[in-house]
Design brief:
Layout (H helix, E strand, L loop, with lengths): L8 H4 L3 E2 L6 E3 L5 E5 L23 E2 L1 E5 L5 E5 L11 E3 L4 E6 L3 E2 L2 E5 L3 E4 L3 E3 L11 E2 L2 E6 L4 E4 L2 E4 L3 E2 L2 E6 L9 E3 L2 E4 L5 E5 L4 E4 L2 E4 L17 E5 L2 E4 L2 E5 L4 E5 L2 E4 L9 E6 L3 E6 L4 E4 L5 E6 L9 E4 L3 E3 L4 E5 L3 E6 L4 E3 L4 E6 L11 E6 L4 E3 L4 E6 L1 E7 L9 E2 L4 E4 L5 E6 L12 H5 L4
Parallel strand pairs: 1-4, 2-5, 3-6, 5-8, 6-10, 7-11, 9-13, 10-14, 11-15, 12-16, 13-17, 14-18, 15-19, 16-20, 18-21, 19-22, 20-23, 21-24, 22-25, 23-26, 24-27, 25-28, 26-29, 27-30, 28-31, 29-32, 30-33, 31-34, 32-35, 33-36, 34-37, 35-38, 36-39, 37-40, 38-41, 39-42, 40-43, 41-44, 42-45
């Protein structure tokens, strides 16, 4: 729309409101509920004349949007948006009523910016039910999407998406050129209940940051025998750059807290009592890094806590790296209960550095479960490197510290244990499993520990 007589003043006089019982419903395919191409706020609302600090959508109130259909967008800041007010659009309790996905929504976005920024300061709850009381369903939807390397979306409140919506992305950042800013930032809470969901996603051009809370609680489907399938959830999927602090919890088999093929930095808050917490349950893995150039580096020291509770799955682990992935977690606290392993490294050029860390690993079983196998606190395929120097390790249940190939000289073995302290709390623990030991003379046995080059 254009005002040929009054220019931009036309937009200053526009007011948009939904109110109770009224909403914009987006159906069909490739449609947009509301697209904003120019400021809708009055100059009179500036903090001072000429300050240009007003919310560009201040003339919108109680806007209600429901996105159904396929490949649709609920609220869009257009890519050719005017420069008459480049401030962030604020979606809060004044401008925003209810934003949600309708039943059957697919591959759609609720809020997206193609130019400048958007801040979300009101809860978004997507948990609808149909007339029969069944959960709304949908697939492949994104709640908040920052599209382009100079755009950004910040979330300050709570995003909740029900279990009927699968493959949901809480916040996503995409671009075509390398970004120099954080394109998505979560300071609130993202809670996704459907399987195969991603809390926050950054592509190879984008950057993201979390200082709030992310929780992926979706579970896999149950087969006729009552077995629960793969959940495939990811708390943070990073291909670009990401900074994580706060709290992260992910559930289900083949799930990961952080799945990294880019550069991830783990920090901790400035307050003395702040902690950074990552929790993986029912078969999930805490940290996963893959590929040449991929790194996860913690600057949180002993204020980083990684907890794995495998439950009945007996799967999952705290830290996994492969294909030249690098993970550095100096002085971190790691506690794994019943996971298949504590940490694991595969392939040449891969390294997990746990210098000074505390690693607790327990592999429990019921008394009558004699076939239940041992698990490794640290496992290498013979190529991936694990550094345990000055680490403290506690082993419980049917836990094995590590595997050693006797045919490989100690200096060349992939797991390094200089000044490592190991404490055993169970008669079932195996300290070291030795391969290729061959036949040893009794007189040589006293030298095995020295030859292993292992821990104390």
């Amino acid at each position: 729309m254009l005002d040929m007589l009054h220019g931009q003043k036309y937009y200053d006089m526009v007011t948009v409101t939904s109110g109770t019982g009224k909403k914009i419903t987006v159906n069909g395919e490739e449609n947009v509920g509301m697209a904003i191409g120019k400021s809708l706020s009055a100059v009179a609302r500036e903090s001072a004349p000429g300050a240009n600090d007003t919310n560009p959508i201040a003339n919108i109130s109680d806007l209600n949007i429901e996105v159904a259909g396929e490949k649709n967008i609920g609220f869009l800041r257009l890519k050719d948006y005017s420069d008459n007010n480049t401030n962030d659009m604020i979606l809060d309790s004044t401008t925003m009523g209810t934003f949600t996905f309708g039943n059957g929504a697919k591959n759609s976005s609720l809020v997206r910016t193609d130019k400048h920024g958007i801040q979300v300061k009101k809860d978004i709850s997507i948990t609808g039910k149909d007339a029969d009381g069944n959960d709304y369903t949908g697939s492949g939807n994104t709640v908040l999407h920052s599209n382009g390397e100079t755009q950004h979306i910040y979330n300050y409140n709570t995003i909740t998406v029900g279990k009927g919506f699968t493959k949901t992305v809480g916040m996503a950042a995409t671009g075509t050129k390398a970004s120099t800013i954080d394109n998505i930032v979560n300071e609130g809470t993202i809670a996704l209940q459907g399987k195969q969901s991603i809390g926050m996603y950054t592509d190879k051009f984008s950057q993201g940051k979390n200082t709030g809370s992310i929780k992926l609680s979706g579970v896999g489907d149950t087969d006729p025998s009552g077995n629960i399938g793969d959940a495939e959830n990811i708390g943070i999927s990073n291909k670009g750059k990401f900074t994580f602090l706060g709290d992260l919890e992910v559930n289900g088999k083949k799930s990961s807290g952080i799945y990294n093929t880019g550069t991830t930095t783990i920090e901790v808050g400035a307050n003395p009592n702040d902690k950074t917490n990552i929790k993986a349950t029912n078969g999930a893995t805490g940290l996963y890094s893959k590929g040449a150039g991929s790194t996860i580096t913690s600057n949180a020291g002993n204020k980083l806590n990684i907890t794995v509770e495998a439950g009945e799955t007996k799967e999952g682990l705290a830290v996994y790296a492969e294909d030249k992935g690098q993970i550095t977690l100096h002085n971190a606290n790691i506690n794994v209960v019943d996971g298949s392993a504590g940490v694991a490294a595969y392939d040449a050029g891969t390294k997990i550095d746990l210098t000074g860390a505390k690693l607790k690993y327990s592999r429990n079983r019921d008394e009558d479960d004699y076939d239940y196998g041992y698990g490794y606190a640290t496992y290498s395929d013979g190529n991936g490197q694990i550094i345990l120097n000055n680490a403290d390790i506690e082993l419980r249940g049917k836990a094995t510290l590590m595997n050693v190939d006797w045919s490989v000289p100690a200096a060349n073995r992939p797991i390094k244990t200089s000044a490592t302290n190991v404490t055993v709390f169970s008669n079932d623990v195996v300290g070291i499993n030795i391969n290729n030991l061959g036949t040893q003379n009794v007189s040589n046995l006293s030298n095995i520990k020295k030859f292993i080059g292992s821990c104390s």
